[in-house]
Amino acid sequence: MPERRRFLLSMVRGIGAATVGGLAWTGLLDGTKASATILRPPGAVPEQEFLAQCTKCGLCVEACPYKALQLAVPGDERPLGTPYFRMRETPCRMCRDIPCTVSCPTGALAPSLVSDRDEQGRTRLNINLTKIGLAVIDRETCIAYWGIQCDACYRSCPVIDKAITVEYTKNERTGRHAMLAPVVHSGHCTGCGICEHVCVTKKASVFVLPRALVMGESSDRYVRGWDSTDEERMQDLPDETKTVTPRSEKSPLDYLNKGDL
Amino acid sequence: MPALQEYKYLALRRVSQLSIMLLFVAGNLLGWSVLRGNLSTSKVLGVVTLADPYAVLQVLASRHLVAGEALAGSLIILLFFGLIAGRSFCSWVCPVNMVTDLAAWLRKRSGLDASGNPPVIGRNTRYWVIVASLAVSAATGIAAFEWISPISMLHRGIIFGMGMGWAVVLALFLFDLIIQKEGFCGHLCPLGGFYSLVTRFSLLRVRHSKEKCTLCMRCVNVCPERQVLPMVGRTSSAVTSGECTNCGRCIEVCGEDAMKFGMRI
Questions:
Q1: A240 or A121, which is more confident?
Q2: Are residues B27 and B61 in the same domain?
Q3: Which residue, among B37, B240, B41, B63, has the nearest Cα to B139 in the 3D structure?
Q4: Which of A56, A61, A76, A104 to mutate to test the interface with B (most CBs of B within 10 A)?
């Protein structure tokens, strides 16, 4: 066989093997990426970028003085080697100097996401801006919603009276007692997980989940008429709107009369 | 003691590999600042950041930016091995080398080598793995090899906890022991392949002296990348292939002093 032919054949074989392997590899990674419920360190960039930028070096894990972060190992069923919280065991203590975020050398944790400006206009870290996730309350297992007095989550919340408030209502069942029910406010909750850590029920009735998983998003054109500033959201929107759905392709008269609603 | 002389570099390599790992472990458990992080990205004395250039390359291939700190760290490593130390990462730093060396030693002792099972994959497979890893990184948007790398699983496991990662390391060990001689480090590993490519012109080299050579071939027999020693007994020259890991085994087993570390020119 001529030398050139042999070379070409070996190239083709190599490319073929690399393609087969690469396709299997792509499929494998697709499963690895699925991590809907994972809670990232403060200042983490959005999950897809995080997965790309994190080199799994563990410097954030080592920087945490409370050893709250860990790297996922095979068997954790989480993206391998990436840092995450287990709030029930060790929540984020919301350090003011955010050592985990500033230790990241790759940009997967970005200090800019947890910074604002002080009175003199200088950039400063502000842990209250962190959005690790959002605390969610299961009102069916939370004993405060049964009428039993418990304010463990409320008392322990580092952003008390903002992130968690207690709502007083009359206990209609007994007619003579009060309900002191905890309520989470997404505008202030940092997702630190201390509420989940201290919750007294057998399995925590308040727990942190990623915001993307538990939060909806209302449409731009629904305005809270009682809030004078809310209308500002509409400023940059185009005047003309047209919603296109499979149904709107026909005229309203058509589809109302065809009877195939 | 001539017997001990034969393991001089091997002992030094084990000291190097183990102390690097121990310093990382002490960094995590005791808060020592000498070395923190792991072999993917690390911080030396709390000042200098080092990063795995192949990992950074994959992140870039996935069309994401890397912060300047890690980028600079990967350049330091790239220049150090690429210009000076050659592919010595594999034999002086990487902990997988200890696993595969053990497999190779057991192969020899148990006669698995002599039974001569045919090669399953070629030595150029690693370069195709690099091509595939960059293509998969671009397709999936995440650094492909970093997600399945048994190297990372081992060093990260040693420093931060292993989990089920031992199964992967055991599989790698058995692959080298039973299926393919020098299979992972010498055939498959894209990180080793990457260092082979970028250290082609590095300075530190093993040099051979034809005049002293008695053609006993101990150097070739002990070499894990024996294709890099075509000059033995033929010409007095330096190893030119980037696939040489500068492990020094050929030097210490040579009774005639025909091999030694030197410069490329």
A1: A121
A2: yes
A3: B63
A4: A56
